[in-house]
């Protein structure tokens, strides 16, 4: 399996580098990750659960960072065992490049080999699962640094919600006037009851 992707992250390069070396942030962002524990210098023990097509397994493995060029790039060498599901091993080159003052372009190229049941389900399913996991990782990673701007946007959205909600009511009132008298009276009563409750 080979995978090459580029993602733009909404944080400066130095901060991206620090986050990529923060085990708590990585644990929160890697789908299915249960633990990441230091195992010597620039090495980590990782436990995670993953589903690849019909094969679901809990993997335990080791990840080693090599050829470190802070804050620009490093290599990741990894291997993991998933019991009856099989094994995976490989490496990835991760490169960071500033994209203006407040964003970073992250490019990675990964290659991996799988064995056991994983090897039997086909490369297309494995590639698809890998892309899905990677996509979810970067989605969560970016969300970690969304900042106060998103909170303000969300609050602004909440403020506009009542006005937006009122629009359909206005439309239904217009529709009511075009309906028969009995239906209009019935709707008016329920509308009045709703107002008196609120």
Automatic annotation (TrEMBL):
Pfam families: COXG. InterPro entries: CO_DH_gsu, START-like_dom_sf. CDD domains: CoxG (cd05018). Residues 148-198 are annotated as: Disordered. This is Carbon monoxide dehydrogenase subunit G. It comes from Paraburkholderia panacisoli. The lineage of its organism: Bacteria, Pseudomonadati, Pseudomonadota, Betaproteobacteria, Burkholderiales.
